[in-house]
Amino acid sequence: MKLNNLNNLNMDSLSPKKKFFGRGNTIKFIIPLLVLILISLFLYLGGWDAIQMGMAGRKRANQMAGAIRDYENKMSEIERKMANDTYGGKTPRETLDLFIVALENGDLDMAAKYFKLDKSFSYDTWREYLQQAKDENRIEFILSQLRKAVVSSSQAGIDSRFEFMILGDDGMASYTIDLILNKYSQVWKLDNL
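Below the sequence we write its predicted structure tokens.
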């Protein structure tokens, strides 16, 4: 009978019973559970919002980088146009004299080029102004006034700005003519009349 009992025994019954919470199984169970708890806690405390904000921040940073590149490209274009704007004199008086000669010769295109570039970086605004003055027969009056221009006694004290004034019969300034130095081409430009 003892042999019969031995034959009925299988090998599993002789080995010690495996415990579910043994050392290896415990680690395999606890680590994923802790990871799941940490992920849940992260998401609960706003982690998903932080991820979305990070993505939005990255998108905003890319947009800003693009805007900065566009700005730098535009500034390079402006600097190139300013450097190519070489119409004018090395002194304010020389620019004013060149402008007067161009007006005397009836060359409104050349006269317009002695003004600073307009907002669209062309001379169109000044050309239109001079054409209107011609159409209204004011060029001779403008010339008569420009020939009386004297250096203003109230200079701004800035090396890149200069002012002439035109005195009236009473000795007071009737008009002022402002010039600015184009720092890219180093010529003086009329700022206004």
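The first strand starts at residue 149 and ends at 151.
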